Amino acid sequence: MDTQQAYNNWSSQYDSNHNKTRDLEATALRSALNGLTIGRHLELGCGTGKNSAWLSEKVTDLTAVDFSEGMLAIARDKVTATNTRFVQADLNGDWHFATGLYDCINFSLVLEHFDDLQPLFKKAAALLQPGGYLYAGELHPFKQYSGSKARFDTEAGTQVVECYDHHVSGFTNAAKAAGLQLISIDEYFDGADRKTMPRILAMLFRKDA
Questions:
Q1: How far does CA 64 lie from the centroid of its chain?
Q2: pLDDT in tens, 67-96
Q3: Which in 81, 84, 85, 142 has the greatest CB count within 10 A?
Q4: CA-CA distance, 110 to 42, in Å (whole number)?
Q5: Residue 84 and residue 76: Cα distance in Å, rounded?
Q6: Which superfamily is assigned to 3-207 in CATH?
Q7: Nearest-CA neighbor of 160 among 148, 143, 176?
Q8: CA torsion 113→129→43→118, rounded to 10°?
Q9: pLDDT (tens digit, 9 = 90+) per residue, 158-179?
Q10: To which H or E segment does residue 108 belong?
Q11: Separation of alpha carbons 3 and 93, rounded Å
Q12: Which long-range contacts (CB under 8 A, 24 or more apart) does 182-185 make?
């Protein structure tokens, strides 16, 4: 099953499923962006709007993009703020949804579905204002190494979404090649227990002014 169809199938239960990764990444994003002043924001991989609702209250203008129409249908019902626009698009294609430059861009649990990170970081960096920020919150590589992947249960059995392992250096090198400077890197743990394996890797980059 391809990624788009998988998320369409998952959409009806995505918000109601117990999902530590989804919930902890939402915490990571809020921590990373809370202190920033953001006008125009581009959310890449908005899903059902788990972060869109918070972002719509924080930023002046929000464009939220996802591959799955099933996910977007729920997000549109959830977030009706007039400053928010939802767009269906494949990030592998032309980014027709982008208009002008943005103060901040985020990837949340998205990059694991792409084998090559550099094109995404380069496209994103080109759309940032000088001094703008890029946030990436992903399943921690340690979790990936242990075999953890995006998955959900159906009547036909467990569906595993296609994912690619990425090392920490894979993220930071792709960002560096795109002209982005690493500002902070944080790890988030289940129950904040730092003696366990980290679940979320959260990185904040900035484009040179």
A1: 11
A2: 999 989 999 999 999 999 999 999 999 999
A3: 84
A4: 14
A5: 9
A6: Vaccinia Virus protein VP39 (3.40.50.150)
A7: 148
A8: 0
A9: 666 678 999 999 999 999 999 9
A10: strand 102-108
A11: 15
A12: 183/133, 184/32
